[in-house]
Amino acid sequence: MNHFIAPSVLAADFANLQRDIEMVNGSAADWFHVDIMDGVFVPNISFGFPVVEAIRKHAGKPLDVHLMITDPDRYIGAFAKAGASVITVHYEACTHLHRTLAAIKEMGCKAGVALNPHTPVHVLEDIIEDADLVLIMSVNPGFGGQKFIQRTYDKLKALKAMAAGRNDNLLIEVDGGVNISNAGQLISCGANVLVAGNFVFTADDPKAVISEMKEVMPGLMKA
Ligand code: DX5
Ligand code: ZN
């Protein structure tokens, strides 16, 4: 599969949200990455349902909703109704992850599970067939614009090896500090969905940056 690009709306200009959404609509991006933070699971609060619904109203591409919230089961139905196509919960926030992933699928969404930087990939050993997507956090969740954690490359390789022959269609997403310099190496290590917030939205020409990320070939890091 060709890799997907998912610009993170967290880095958009919220006073010009419609303009920024239309930029993404008209770009080579595949999804809108939508970060939900509750101020408990992560030390920051982002936005809630009215904003997700407003994004949905203008977005011409699927919403990839990343729930950085405790007890996400309470809100799965509401995010599905608000227009999510993918709902990703954190492994660290779920007591009954198998049940949670099934509940997401029951709502007609793709089910994702995210791992914090400190959480090893092997915790997914008994659930890898049940996820549509695994999100490897390459920064500690909570804020955009943080520095990429190098250890992520090895985690991606471990995840890819685990999924081989068991879930070959698994979407492997990487989120945090992604840019044109590390995109090629991330893809060669197994990532097939790249989230990018600040790198896209602070660019002089965001559409050109998205195209460049979309066209990047697997390979080594750019200097
Ligand atoms: C971080 C969020 C990310 C964030 C990425 O907690 O999950 O999706 O928006 O932003 P950048 O690409 O700026 O690191
Ligand atoms: Zn995210």
From TrEMBL:
**Record-listed a divalent metal cation binding positions:** 33, 35, 66, 175
| Family annotation (Gene3D superfamilies) | Aldolase class I
Per its record, the protein catalyses: D-ribulose 5-phosphate = D-xylulose 5-phosphate
| Cofactor binding summary note | Binds 1 divalent metal cation per subunit.
Molecular function (GO) terms for this protein are: D-ribulose-phosphate 3-epimerase activity; metal ion binding
* Superkingdom of the source species: Bacteria
Q: Which region is the signal sequence?
A: none
Q: Name one Pfam family in it.
A: Ribul_P_3_epim
Q: Per its Swiss-Prot or TrEMBL entry, what cofactor is needed?
A: Mn(2+); Zn(2+); Co(2+); Fe(2+)
What cellular-component terms does GO give this entry?
Answer: cytoplasm
Please give the start and end residues of each transmembrane region.
none
An example GO biological process term is: pentose-phosphate shunt
E.C. numbers: 5.1.3.1
Enumerate the active-site residues: 35, 175
* Ligand binding (substrate): 8, 66, 142-145, 175-177
| Pathway recorded for this protein | Carbohydrate degradation
Keywords, A to Z, come to: Carbohydrate metabolism, Cobalt, Isomerase, Manganese, Metal-binding, Zinc
Q: What does this protein do?
A: Catalyzes the reversible epimerization of D-ribulose 5-phosphate to D-xylulose 5-phosphate.
Q: Which family does it belong to?
A: Belongs to the ribulose-phosphate 3-epimerase family.
Q: Which PANTHER family match?
A: RIBULOSE-5-PHOSPHATE-3-EPIMERASE (PTHR11749)
Name assigned to this protein: Ribulose-phosphate 3-epimerase
